[in-house]
Amino acid sequence: xxxxxxxxxxxxxxxxxxxxxxxxxxxxxxxxxxxxxxxxxxxxxxxxxxxxxxxxxxxxxxxxxxxxxxxxxxxxxxxxxxxxxxxxxxxxxxxxxxxxxxxxxxxxxxxxxxxxxxxxxxxxxxxxxxxxxxxxxxxxxxxxxxxxxxxxxxxxxxxxxxxxxxxxxxxxxxxxxxxxxxxxxxxxxxxxxxxxxxxxxxxxxxxxxxxxxxxxxxxxxxxxxxxxxxxxxxxxxxxxxxxxxxxxxxxxxxxxxxxxxxxxxxxxxxxxxxxxxxxxxxxxxxxxxx
Length: 290
Prior knowledge:
Shape: elongated
Number of strands: 20
Strand content: 35-45%
CATH class of the largest domain: Mainly Beta
Mean pLDDT: 78
Number of domains: 2
Structural class: alpha+beta
Radius of gyration: 33 Å
CATH superfamily of the largest domain: Immunoglobulins
Largest sheet: 6 strands, mixed
């Protein structure tokens, strides 16, 4: 036993033991890599007479709730003579449900359709009025030999409006009301956006005048700026930014006169004075107990 213990302290034996442990730990990791690799896209072989997928570059699709999603699948070298035996199908991986085969839909959910113009290589899956539940992986399969499959990841987001600043705004009478609304969106899903005061949509051509909107659109968001010049007491109320197919956002605007503004500031400063008085009493109590 002493000989074995002494042998373990030999540098060469320690090095061999360390290498053996490293090899033992790395074997499962290599196995996992092989599993991950096997789950990747099976493109098929180019420069052959067999069907294969066109390179998409990105297999992630993002859609907004309520909008249409198009999942791409372009199959090259799909000979019409093989149409009787070679089929293009869409499978939902979550439940392995067959959604479509060729141009036919095999689900009772009528939101799923195949976009396949005649004599084209496109076999895209269209999902109208997307919901959160539609998020997940969908697989475009071609029943060639060998079978090829293309997984597409669908990400679903909700469009939501946000008015910058506090939920209540106090403005002096005669000043300009400036409200900025930001909506997360995608360039192809940018819809209309309206402003409301109460339940009435603002009319930019109303006799009141001085009402205008500036809109800026980028691939990721829409920004709408509302301006009302010469604010009057009648302009007070709830202002709502209401985009199409998105959750609205509301801010309450108070238009006040000079003396009312001073009263608002006085009322807002009362809690701070109370806190200061409470702090003073706590300090006096602590000093009295010493």
